[in-house]
């Protein structure tokens, strides 16, 4: 998996984002706000990758890319917290999480809604491994526009390999299906472990075989953490 990138100095934005702005934009519940309080120390709008700051043209789906540094209070953050930030900012976002002396790149595939171009569709999250904050940063992929840059960064973050001829959006959907099927399999296995009656065990084993076969058809398991909580 990839690591964190070196961004152009001209793209530096460096503004702290008050959590209250996210609360207001997302109309968050008291419970959701408490997650921010418990898990997030500070949100910093670190870089703005735009035609005027990075010398790459924008595309309809990716007019700009924002880079947010999120300093954690502890060792985890729920994907729901990142999703609230994503929904409050009308541009694709690359998140750089920081905890102690480690950092991690994480992002969702974010695109304008086909039904309403003023709204954004946000996928599950894809993440790199935690790495030391003093590790050398990677150079950004060489591309001709921001849309391709965004796609290339996401592809590096995604687990597994793309199928032949698979588009980015199709790959995202397939990975989400795989993760859902992995969760189903874990649930079936837990039911099987608890069940005492032989005839019910037989039925649950049949469910497990069917789910495992469906997972194989999707391209195999990933067993990656979609929530950036580890």
SSE order, as H and E?
A: EEHHEHEHEEEEEHHH
What is the radius of gyration?
20 Å
Major sheet size, sense and barrel closure: 7 strands, mixed
The backbone outline, from C-alpha atoms, is: globular
Our estimate of the beta-strand percent is: 15-25%
Could you say which structural class the secondary elements and strand pairing correspond to? alpha+beta
Mean pLDDT over all positions: 90
What is the count of distinct domains? Answer: 2
Number of helical stretches of at least 4 residues: 7
Helix content: 25-40%
Low-confidence stretches: 224-230
Query: Roughly how many Å apart are the termini?
Result: 16 Å
Number of strands: 9
Please explain how this structure is put together.
- There is one protein chain.
- Strand 6 (102-112) and strand 7 form a beta hairpin.
- Helices cover 40% and strands 24% of the residues.
- It is globular.
- With 230 residues, the chain is α+β, with helices and mostly antiparallel strands.
- Helix 1 crosses helix 4 (79-88) and helix 6 (168-194) packs antiparallel against helix 7.
- It contains seven helices and nine strands; from the N terminus they run ββααβαβαβββββααα.
- It has helices at residues 19-26, 30-39, 51-54, 79-88, 146-157, 168-194, 198-217; strands at 5-6, 12-16, 40-49, 65-72, 93-99, 102-112, 120-127, 131-132, 138-139.
- Mean pLDDT is 90; it is low at 224-230.
- The chain has two domains: 5-157, no CATH class; 168-217.
- It starts with a strand and ends in a 13-residue tail after the last helix.
- Strands 2, 3, 4, 5, 6, 7 and 8 form a seven-stranded mixed sheet that branches. A two-stranded parallel sheet has the order 1-9.
